[in-house]
Design a protein that fits this description.
Elements: H1 10-64, E1 71-76, E2 79-88, E3 91-100, E4 103-110, E5 121-125, E6 128-135, E7 138-144, E8 150-156
Antiparallel strand pairs: 1-2, 2-3, 3-4, 4-5, 6-7, 7-8
């Protein structure tokens, strides 16, 4: 009497290996998709960050200095700058924000002193920055970051003279 002997077939070896390779290929495909999505999201976030930071900075400075009509557009060396006047210890100071030599710059100086574009403190790299007063008390700021992304911000003075 012969008890059931099992015969080995090739399929007994090939099937588990094939299933393993299907799972491995699926795992690699999902991993590659996730890496691609992550790299795209990171690039978009960095681009968004570099485009929005200059206008956020300018907006914050604008709000800090919005008192008694102290904000205006003035020309320094033929370039329009955002000018914000302040009175510290009965001395008038002006803060200028502008783009010069590929950088967004800020210059804080006494109002009676001579101001030069090259003297400003570098804030961040920027391709271009323009400011204009579209209506009385309404300003338009346009910035172009180093990658060429352009954003525009409108801000209105809340204070009056």
């Amino acid at each position: 009497m012969k008890f059931g002997t099992r015969q080995n077939h090739v399929i007994d070896l090939v099937f588990p290996i094939a299933v393993f390779f299907v799972f491995a290929a699926s795992f690699l495909a999902v991993l590659m998709l996730a890496a691609n999505i992550y790299s795209r999201q990171t690039a978009d976030a960095n681009s968004n960050y570099s485009a929005r930071i200059p206008l956020s900075y300018i907006s914050e400075k604008f709000r800090q200095n919005d008192a008694g009509g102290a904000i205006s557009v003035q020309s320094l060396e033929g370039q329009d700058c955002l000018a914000m006047e302040s009175n510290l210890n009965n001395v008038l100071y002006t803060t200028y924000i502008y783009a010069h030599d590929g950088m967004l710059k800020e210059l804080f100086i006494r109002s009676d002193a001579d101001a030069y574009l090259a003297d400003g403190k570098n804030i961040m790299a920027i391709r271009d920055f323009t400011v204009e007063e579209t209506n009385e008390g309404l300003f338009r700021f346009t910035s172009v970051d180093a990658e060429g992304n352009t954003l525009t911000l409108f801000a209105s003075e809340r204070s009056t003279l």
